[in-house]
Amino acid sequence: MTKTAGIHHITAMVNDAQRNIDFYAGVLGLRLVKKTINFDRPEVYHLYFGNETGQPGTVITFFPWAKQLKGRIGQGQVGVTSYVIPKGSAPFWENRLGKFGVEFTSSIRFGEKYLKFNDPDGLQLELTERDDGSLNTWNFGGVQAENAIKGFGGAVLFSAQPHKTKYVLENILGLECIGQENEFLRFNSEGDIGNTIDIHLNPSVRGLMGAGTVHHIAWRAKDEEELLRWRSLLQDKDYYPTEVRDRNYFKAVYFHEGGGILFEIATDPPGFTVDEPVGELGRKLMLPSWLESKREELEETLPPVEVRVLEGDK
After folding, report:
1. Rounded to two decimals, what is the model's pTM?
2. Residue 228: how many CA atoms within 13 Å on its side-chain side?
């Protein structure tokens, strides 16, 4: 059976691009690894944040659009995005969140302590300590490598039909169900990051797409050959996957699983250095070849943004 290593990326929707950069780069210390546009709506940025190289399993991406309505987190969505931090770094993050006025709470799930908080648009995030995963070598502002977010710990899925989501995780993606605790069902994949998925069995309300919600979660495929095998399996199982779409930095197919969540399967290659060297990632607006002729028009339309060290770190 073909098995995914875990999460490839998570994509969410927010209102303000600069506020988004200030939080994910300035507060959380992630690297802006790609500044491009939504290929389907080129008047909207597509911003990618991850570890130093934008390794699969570390990247959260955003469509920031000021005019979109506020969404509501609920059934049929990724409810919580989990990040993994180095062992012993939780006190650092408690202090850092407090310094920047980010309210947080603590909880225990499956024996792990989680720091839970929201980003400025209301996306639900959490941090947990684990030995798994390599250290993130990116240093920025007040976040140094010994405390830096390594990548995804996983995600909490708010499924409208948990048993149908469970089927896809186990029988399509190859995750293993390792147990239930209270209202959470836990699954593990074979990767060392982005490898722990919880299904919330009793989400309270129906989700509404909009700012402050996750648009989709993407799972890792080793290459295009593996992606095509998954697409064939999805067709055989009547999940109606899309055609393979070229996103420049990976190729992907999309489908809705039975619990209403939009899933994507994306290839690890070619990665974010296909059009920029590692040292220059995220500095320039990168456009696909078919939009390069509209660069001047797009740069005038898109709001100016920058990655900046925040006052609290100066």
Report:
1. 0.97
2. 3
